Amino acid sequence: MNxxxxxxxxxxxxxxxxxGRASAIELSRLGANIILLARNADQxxxxxxxLDYTKGQDHRFIVADTSDSLDLQKKIKTLTSQxxxxxxxxxxxxPSSGSILSANPEDFLKAYHSHLIANHILAGIVIPxxxxxxxxxxxxxxxxxxxxxxxxxxxxxxTRGAVASWAKTLSNELAPFGITVNSVLPGATSTDxxxxxINNKADKSLISKDxxxxxxxHEIPMARFxxxxxxxxxxxxxxxxxxxxxxxxxxxxxxxxxxxx
Length: 261
Description:
Layout: E1 9-13, H1 18-29, E2 33-38, H2 41-50, E3 60-63, H3 69-82, E4 87-90, H4 105-133, E5 136-141, H5 154-174, E6 179-186, H6 192-205, H7 209-218, H8 228-239, E7 250-253
Parallel strand pairs: 1-2, 1-4, 2-3, 4-5, 5-6, 6-7
Helix pairs in contact: 1-8, 3-4, 4-5, 6-7
């Protein structure tokens, strides 16, 4: 199986922590040059130190906010004027939890801007280079909510579904060029995001965090939360030459929680 990414460059959004960080580390282990993108410079510096350098890789980072379209566009255009991005990992922290009826129109606009619009901007900038080299992988970190909406995540459910549909449509348009577009759907994974969801649910339900955790784990056949590196393993495979005939799919990585085929 060819998993070698030596000589390839991966732009990993949200690469300073959680699933983004784990994905960057895994991609670097396969030989890829990594460009991290996130808002926190200190966390980015720490993550760069954790990447694999054994194959002579060149790792960098970009401080940017996906909600600032003009700045994001400017910085990524500068990047692609210097090197071709072969792998794009779209990964942005989820919107705040809450019922869909409690959401304001601005909540949807903000979420769409940071997720769907940012993904579209990034893809539009890097795709020409992918076409030129004949190698392209676009991987979106979304959520199992695109299969079955998750209670209490109204804005997130809506936004994630839009991103999944965007990815499927894009995959069909890019398939003739050998560029794949796939989505990874993490279930409950031990990240800061999961901690926020647990805290919010505990506050609203007036029960302890331990009780919330046990309720959530009870819904998972594997009876545990996932680890970021387990999601990253799927990201790395989809980024590799071995996944050349896989496109347009949304793959749950959730310990069996999603209740559909």
